[in-house]
Structures are given as structure tokens and as C-alpha cells.
Amino acid sequence: MRKYVIGRLLQLILILLIITFLSFGMMRLAGSDAILQKMENTGMVVSQDMIDAARAELGLDKPFLTQYFVWLGNLLHGDMGTSYISGQEVFPAFISKLPATLLLTVVSIVLTIVISIPLGVLAAVKQNQWVDYLMRGISFLGNSMPNFFVPLLLMYIFAIRLGWLPVISRNVSLQNVILPAVTLAIAMSAKYLRQVRATVLDELNKDYKDYVIGAKARGIRFSVTLTKSVLRACLVTVLTLLTLSIGSLLGGTAIVESIFMWDGVGKLAVDAINMRDYPMIQAYVMWMAIIYVCVNLVTDLSYRVLDPRIRLGGAKG
């Protein structure tokens, strides 16, 4: 186990280094000039000497590899640079957006679990009955709706027509997070409901004679067998789905955050891309990389706890 964890950590460190190089290179090959973009935003007429001086001040006049190693060295010391647009340090500005994203992530995941898992299990247990057809129809409808349509529909009904919730998010609070969280939960639940249903059905059909009928013969209720045996065997698949969603949500959902003006890292990334704010974009890329690397590691380590049949690193039981 220890050998596997160390090997995975070394592998993930290498992956992060490769991501830093690729992201830094793509920023420099993007085909646009951050200095010119900044000058255009100010509306000032500047000379070529001023542009060259601004490039030299930001270190953009140095060779690519020199820029990369300087940036990587600063990054390892906790310095992500200074925003080209606001002139503020990137790390504090980025950290200030995390509470909003964390709140949105937690509420969305809780709603997704509450909706998708019970309905998916119900659809599997009631296979080919009217309840199953209804759940599959709801899932199909949820998957068919575009990402931008659901938030606009919810905003129109609950904010504009009924006036129960604010149209846009003015601050980070439970009242303001309801609409964006429900929007994300609807999209994820529609997808995961069918996957939970398929996983439970596969487990029931695969091992039905082994323990479901045996438990029924011993007088154990089907609900007990379902919760303690079948669902536990399905936890690996469910955990994988949820952890991938957590990684995506922690990275911010640009469309939803932009529509509701939710002040999280997703909206911050969209603004940085529009303004060609390369240090902020690189901070966001690194944040996403670290999230997915950590989430994948935690997921792999959790498999052994949830399913003893899995042996990490090829160890034999």
C-alpha cells in the first residue's frame, strides 16, 4: 500500500510538471499580446517604446524557457505573479473566490446525491414498470436541455415571475446559491440517475442467485439486502462519478457562474480569458490540474476501503 501511494505521488508530480509546461507554452502561443490588450483597455495612445518597457517590466522580453523557469520557481514558492489587468497579486485574488465555489460545490453535490441515487435505485428496483419509465423520461429530458437553458428557465420562474429568489447573486449566501446549485444538480442528476440505475441492475442480475435470493430465503427483507449488499457493491461506480463531478465543480462552472453572476473561480477564469490576463489563467489551469490529480488519488485509495476485492498496485490477496 505504501509503495503504491509513493509511486502514485511521484507519477502525479510528473504530470503536474508536464501540465505547467504545456499551459505556459500555450499561453505564449495563443496569438494575442497581453500588453497590447491592456493598453487598448485603457484607451490610451502609446508608443512602441512604452510597449517595450511594459514587456520588459513583466519579463515578456526574455526567451521562452527563461520565462518558464522563472515562473515555475516563483510558483513553487507560492508566488503566482501579478495580474496584467488589475495589478494585484494573483494568489490572494484567486483564493478570495474559493469560498463561493466551495459553497456552490457542496450544495450541488448534496442535491445531486439526494436526487440521483434514490431515484436511480427506485428505477432499477421497479424495472420496466411505470416508475422506471417515468424516471428514464425525466433523465432523458434533463440530459436534452442545453446548459444555458435551465438556468434561464429557473431564473424566469423563481426570480422574475414568483420573486422568491434574487435574479443575480449579490453575495455569497445560501439564498443566492439556491438557483445556481439547483441548475447544476438538475444537469448532474439527469446523467447520474441512469448510471446508478444501470449499476444497480447489473449488480442485481450478476449476483442475484448468490445473495439476494439467499437472503430472501433466510427471511431478510429485500430493502435490507439492497442497502447493505447491493448498494455497497455499487459504491465504487457511484464514488467515481461523484468525485469527477466534485473536481469539475471545484474548478468552477463558467456558464452557470456567469449567468447568475456567482463570484467564483469559474467566472474569474472567464473574465481573465476575455481580458488576456495570462497569470490569472495560469493560476486557474494549475488549480484545475491539482484538483483532478488529488481527486483521482483519493478515489483510487478509496476503492480498497469500499471494495476489498480490489487490490491496488497489483497486490494479491
From TrEMBL:
It comes from the Bacteria. Residues 98-299 form the ABC transmembrane type-1 domain. Keywords: Cell membrane, Ion transport, Membrane, Nickel, Nickel transport, Transmembrane, Transmembrane helix, Transport. It is found in: Cell membrane. The chain crosses the membrane at residues 12-31, 102-125, 146-167, 173-193, 230-261, 281-303. Pfam families: BPD_transp_1, BPD_transp_1_N. One of its GO terms (cellular component) is plasma membrane. The keyword Glycoprotein does not apply. One of its GO terms (molecular function) is nickel cation transmembrane transporter activity. The complex is composed of two ATP-binding proteins (NikD and NikE), two transmembrane proteins (NikB and NikC) and a solute-binding protein (NikA). PANTHER family: DIPEPTIDE TRANSPORT SYSTEM PERMEASE PROTEIN DPPB-RELATED. Belongs to the binding-protein-dependent transport system permease family. OppBC subfamily. This is Nickel import system permease protein NikB. The lineage of its organism: Bacteria, Bacillati, Bacillota, Clostridia, Eubacteriales.
